[in-house]
Amino acid sequence: MLRPYEMPWRRPLEAAAAAGWMFAAALFHVLMAYALPPRASHVLVLLSLLMAVLRCRQALRILRIRAALSGRAMEMIPVSRLASMTEDPEQVVFGLGFIWQPLHSQRLYEMIKIDYRVMTLPAWSVRALGYQPDPQPDGEIGLPWIHGVEPH
Question: What pTM did the predictor assign?
Answer without folding.
Answer: 0.74
